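Action item from last meeting closed. Structure (480 res):
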């Protein structure tokens, strides 16, 4: 729990110092020798009145909001390490140097810095009580507003992390759908679940063809949050929900198998974002669509060379059974544009190894041919602090997925793998504005890159999608 208080320090308090901060002058020479306020430096200091202060260094200048997240994450991690669950944090310096909006980043760093993944057998998760003090009176109201908004957003991130971290055998397709339902239970969001029989009847040829590879059948989750009835705009948020991706008959090598349980990060991100939109009662219309299945080997599995008919009626030549994500996303995007009155489509997926080779683990790929949609997304990720990079799309890329025997094929040439994967999905979007996010690199970190990450799932995408769909965010505070 994070609270904003006016009062004094708790028994344990975090205090921030710039490099060569004049406030350091009052501190004992012993401590000054080892602590100079360098970025992310930290040291505990016992005070004369018996309380403890955790000194955390701000460095010289912070020019990226993720630095503030790192600082508060560092602080909570240090406290956690010393089993201190109740503490205060003086954020006065940070606010006066970088503005009140930093509250978002401070809260995010705190809530993610203490994140721990689910263990087996289950253990209670630690609860923290953190009091933020040092906020000037005139900023108090804004601080409270921003904190209140941020908490559900980061709860969404933590949910996405939980889902991705769960082992495949603890999260089969039906369980993932159930977890989504449970998480959204108190938000007023309506969920609808299509089971395998329904998908078969509807002709969801991509999703059923992939899902039939497993004894745990596929399903399809629809999450409707329509809170702006006067507005015709509805954004489809499509998230890949493969709870386990072995590659199918195009089997992944053993070394690539460990991360396969995280192939539903897109679906988890969509759920987390919609949760936050609903909790914050944001005036917007979004429909989440999550195709859920496993990709495994069984007598009925797809084989390379097979041709299937997708929900749209288009035929697909399956070159590689490991390119399963786009098969299920194609059905989903086609279903959304045909039946849900959506006006634009965003999809998010752990889709290609190519994006990892290109951008690594801290930057996600974006593919879109819609400048306006991209600009909107860009302004959203400037607030969230996540990193994205847009890739080019040209007609020559589209040619790469032309099939000789079907309408389209599910794999292009050796190069441009992320672009062709995106364009494959675009082919099913019925000409609507479309934007594709490939989080194959950013959804998971084996070695954390930033302080607010821990080994495993990152919850990538949740915050940026939330801010994309919250158009009023910049004016909210003025209107209040
Ligand atoms: N889920 C994988 C992509 C992935 C790779 C996610 C690495 C996380 C980390 C996806 O289904 C896949 O296997 N894609 C193939 C596509 C190829 C066969 C065209 C890939 O990128 O190798
Ligand atoms: Zn795959
Ligand atoms: Zn996959």
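Sequence:
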């Amino acid at each position: 729990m994070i609270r904003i208080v006016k009062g004094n320090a708790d028994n344990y308090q975090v205090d921030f110092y710039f490099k060569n901060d004049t406030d350091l002058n009052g501190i004992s020479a012993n401590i000054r020798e080892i602590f100079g306020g360098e970025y992310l430096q930290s040291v505990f200091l016992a005070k004369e009145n018996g309380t403890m202060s955790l000194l955390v260094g701000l460095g010289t200048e912070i020019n990226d909001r993720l630095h503030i997240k790192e600082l508060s994450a560092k602080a909570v991690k240090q406290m956690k390490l010393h089993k201190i669950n109740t503490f205060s944090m003086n954020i006065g310096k940070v606010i006066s140097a970088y503005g009140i909006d930093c509250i978002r980043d401070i809260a995010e760093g705190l809530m993610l810095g203490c994140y721990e993944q689910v263990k087996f057998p289950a253990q209670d998760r630690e609860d923290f009580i953190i009091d933020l003090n040092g906020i000037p009176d005139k900023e108090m109201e804004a601080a409270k507003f921003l904190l209140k908004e941020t908490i559900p957003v980061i709860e969404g991130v933590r949910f996405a992390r939980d889902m991705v971290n769960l082992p495949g055998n603890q999260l089969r397709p039906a369980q993932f759908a159930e977890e989504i339902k449970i998480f959204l239970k108190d938000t007023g969001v309506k969920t609808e679940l299509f089971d395998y029989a329904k998908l078969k009847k509807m002709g969801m040829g991509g999703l059923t063809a992939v899902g039939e590879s497993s004894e745990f059948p596929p399903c399809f989750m629809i999450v409707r949050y329509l809170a702006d009835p006067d507005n015709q705009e509805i954004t489809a948020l499509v998230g890949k929900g493969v709870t386990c991706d072995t590659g199918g008959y195009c089997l992944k090598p053993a070394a690539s198998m460990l991360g396969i349980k995280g192939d539903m990060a897109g679906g988890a991100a969509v759920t987390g974002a919609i949760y936050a939109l609903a909790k914050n009662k944001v005036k917007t219309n979004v429909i989440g669509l999550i195709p859920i299945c496993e990709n495994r080997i069984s007598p009925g599995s797809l084989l390379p060379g097979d041709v299937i008919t997708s929900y749209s009626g288009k035929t697909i030549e399956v070159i590689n059974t490991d390119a399963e994500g786009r098969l299920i996303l194609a059905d989903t995007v086609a279903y959304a544009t045909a039946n849900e009155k959506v006006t634009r489509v965003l999809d998010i997926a752990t889709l290609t190894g190519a994006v990892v080779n290109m951008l690594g683990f801290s930057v996600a790929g974006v593919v879109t041919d819609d400048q306006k949609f991209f600009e909107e997304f860009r302004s959203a990720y400037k607030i969230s602090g996540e990193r994205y990079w847009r890739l080019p799309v040209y007609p020559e890329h589209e040619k790469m997925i032309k099939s000789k025997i079907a309408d389209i094929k599910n794999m292009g040439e050796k190069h441009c793998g992320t672009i062709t994967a995106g364009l494959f999905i675009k082919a099913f979007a019925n000409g609507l504005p479309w934007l594709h996010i490939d989080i194959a690199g950013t959804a998971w970190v084996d070695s954390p890159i930033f302080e607010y990450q821990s080994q495993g799932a990152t919850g990538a995408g949740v915050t940026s999608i939330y801010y994309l769909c919250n158009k009023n965010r910049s004016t909210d505070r003025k209107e209040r």
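Note appended to the action item: Residues 475-480 have pLDDT under 50 and may be disordered.
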